[in-house]
Amino acid sequence: MSERSLAPETIVVDAGRPPREPNAAVSPDIELSATFVATGVPGPDDRTYGRSHNSTWEAFEGALARLEGAQLPGLVFGSGMAAITAAQELLAPGGTLVAPRHSYMGTLSGALTAQQLGRLRLVTVDIADTDAVRAALTAAAADGSGRDETGRARLMLWVETPTNPMLEVADLPAIIAAAQEAGALVVADNTFATPLLQRPLEFGADVVVHSATKYISGHSDVILGIAVTSDPALRELMLAHRAQAGGIAGPFEVWLALRGLRTLALRVERAGDNAMELATRLTDVAGIAVRYPGLPDDPGNARAGAQMTGYGAIIALELPDAATADAVVDAVELFTPATSLGSVESLIERRRRNADEQASVPEGLLRLSIGIESVEDLWADLSAALRAALAD
Ligand SMILES: Cc1ncc(COP(=O)(O)O)c(C=O)c1O
Fold it and tell me: How many A from CA of 104 to the centre of ligand 1?
């Protein structure tokens, strides 16, 4: 059957299997070899060493490329941050990085460090404000755009939509068109949406990165990242970075991620249904503000409806202050107070407890990652905790 005819729900089950031969294994092996038998001068297809080659990686990398609609295999990394760093290394020294002011805090703090070291110039924008993004790109392009002699970009637009943790939704087609006009490379962090709900390469993004720690693995037991592109030169640069920086993924973690991927469609669907139901009920709770792109009144609702096939399973709740938000976190019994997201269990976190979180994120903002439990059990837990905290 041709790959093109398969739905994403089928690809997550079908991808990365060993070739179908008599007596072959149905699930891929975990390849643990650190080196490979050498046969003279290595050719381009020869496997040399475990920092550069691993068949378990390849199974996962092929699966993610199919899901994101890329022409080339993805590149797996030891964490989402390692994938993000590899993608940011596509920026030429001294280039400009335009990024959402509410990107994942690790992305921003990495970029800030790079700026302090003189490696890049960071410009942050409200990624939901298309005019502001366009203006930032036009202004930055005056200092240089296009690629340098090594193939690195002089200007890069970093996209996260919905953003972490504010859930702002960018107009993907509009900002990518603006970036292309300005000669900028576009990298999209697609962790929140997953390739089942949003495929940035189809809108013209050059590279997609994920924290595969989250939905793709889905069980809070793996730290992993992946970068995907259809551009051979960009892939080559990230591949060289991976082998040289050496922060590679362990084969067992990659195997676990591939195993988790098998149920991605079911998990995303169930968690999304739970999130929509909880967000809707939360709008009736006095004294809090709810952000969820699936709500008809949410500022990102129309955009998310146009460019995504679902709204995801992250809800942001704004409580009046840090103390009330902390009281909710202390009172829940089923939600787990923990950072991270995208797993089968529901997690809750007051984001500003993290020193690196942006000051423009309200002190009382709770990020809820909704899992696949019974929605009634989740509601009973959350509504009781809110009642107790708001009554105090
Ligand atoms: C949107 C987003 N991107 C990237 C990362 C970093 O991924 P990792 O923790 O796998 O390094 C995170 C982690 O929370 C995230 O939320």
Answer: 7
Residue 191: CB within 6 Å of ligand 1?
A: yes
Q: Quick one: which atom of ligand 1 is closest to the CA of 340?
A: 14
In the CATH scheme, what architecture does the domain 264-391 have? Alpha-Beta Complex (3.90)
* Domain boundaries defined on the chain: 55-261, 264-391
Residue 47's SS3 state is coil
Q: How far is the CA of 14 from the centre of ligand 1 (A)?
A: 26
Token duo for residue 197: 């709900």
**pLDDT tens digits, one per residue of 321-338:** 999 999 999 999 999 999
211 CB within 6 A, ligand 1: yes
Structure tokens at 247: 């922060």
Q: Which residues are catalytic?
A: 51, 104, 189, 214
Kindly state if the Cβ of 223 falls inside 6 Å of ligand 1: yes
Compute, in angstroms, the gap from residue 284 CA to the centroid of ligand 1. 31
Residue 226 Cβ contacting ligand 1 at under 6 Å? no
- Structure token digits, residue 291: 């952000």
Q: Where are the alpha helices (DSSP H) in the chain?
A: 8-14, 55-68, 80-88, 105-116, 130-141, 172-182, 194-197, 232-245, 251-261, 264-282, 301-307, 322-331, 375-391
Does domain 55-261 match CATH 2.40.100.10? no
Establish whether residue 163 lines the binding site of ligand 1, counting it when its CB lies within 6 angstroms of any ligand atom. Answer: no
8 A C-beta contact, residue 114 and residue 81: no
A 10 A CB-CB count for 86 gives 23
Angle at 240 between CA 76 and CA 206, to 5 degrees: 65
Taking only the tens place, the pLDDT of each residue in 15-72 is 999 999 999 999 999 999 999 999 899 998 899 999 999 999 999 999 999 999 999 9
